[in-house]
Amino acid sequence: MPETTPPTERTRVVRESHRGAYDRETIYKILDEGFVCHVGFAVDGHPYVIPTLFARVGDAIYFHGSVASRMLRNLSGGIPVCVTVTLTDGFVLARSVFNHSMNYRSVVALGQAALVEAPEEKLEALHAFTEKIIAGRWNDARQPSEKELKATSILRLPLTEVSAKMRVGPPEDDEADYVLPVWAGVIPLALTPGAPIRDEKCDAAIPTPAYTAHYKR
Amino acid sequence: MPETTPPTERTRVVRESHRGAYDRETIYKILDEGFVCHVGFAVDGHPYVIPTLFARVGDAIYFHGSVASRMLRNLSGGIPVCVTVTLTDGFVLARSVFNHSMNYRSVVALGQAALVEAPEEKLEALHAFTEKIIAGRWNDARQPSEKELKATSILRLPLTEVSAKMRVGPPEDDEADYVLPVWAGVIPLALTPGAPIRDEKCDAAIPTPAYTAHYKR
After folding, report:
1. Which of A204, B20, B159, B198 is at 20 to 30 A from A76, Cα to Cα?
2. What is the pLDDT of residues B112-136, one digit of tens each?
3. Domain annotation covers residue A9
4. Which residues 6+ apart lie within 8 Å of B75 measured at CB?
């Protein structure tokens, strides 16, 4: 696996090219922090974008295939998709309205997504979905049955054509605006977990597991 | 404006149809809480999905058009797009791996996005972008110049074909699994602002505005 994939014509970041990154370390870090991806596909020439859970395993990402169920019905081979993962890190308040921005990190992966057929590979993908969200949960919950595995539709997209784009740091204002008496800076954003809510049907004698009570991302 | 738009063949929620909603109140609430949308469009038959800031104004959404710049070069009319907004509300921990899920709210809007030409409409869209993120900021920051407005590329998508989909509440397990001694419930998620970071180039004598120091979403 190459540590850095040279960008293709389709993945090279053209606008604000200094914000582009193509190394596996940066790309994997963003993919592993995110858990919802937006999957784009076209039906009769019209684009659709559907959010779904995903996980990276090695140099591929897996996502729930039911999102593309209307396509899967018609295509047995691969489906052209774009999978995008976005993390929002902060609001950037500049001195001018024009230079207001966001700090963010995103990954765009293009390619042909294929339906996962082998039960062991489906199991591996489900394991990755669960463990990336809550490490330790897989072994506590009831494992998937053969019937459930059959009912699970998962797609695999190899990370062959992929790039990252991000914005970090303070606002960048026009030189002439720095004298303006306007507060400027960043309001950081973080996705934070709240106190766990026990299912009313969950016996109070069952202790709250540490991974839930002290959930950290 | 209709309070509820009947779903079309393309927007009707087919999978888990009880999670679909088509009333303007629900759709607007999700759109107004979100600030990043994922815009899908196709180039030479291949889908692309790009994250960008957006705002709703009346019964349309506006988003930065530079994301579709490669299309705009070729098309002067409308561009077929899908704009999706997703809010992640919590991880749903079921007794079985299979029934693990997410609580979320999402909106999918389909249609033809058109380039905004009138400077007044561009200004209205920029105002909405700024004020939806930080109410009060517009009047504090330097207003856009004529040159900046010209350099701003904004697209408008009327909300004619749109639906919401959401999952709320506790896990839903198979009847037989409720006896399992497995903790079940929800870990809520919220996007929370941190303490504002003043730009190093911002004069310490400039007070931190209330909308920044006590930022709430």
Report:
1. B20
2. 999 898 999 999 999 999 999 899 9
3. no
4. none
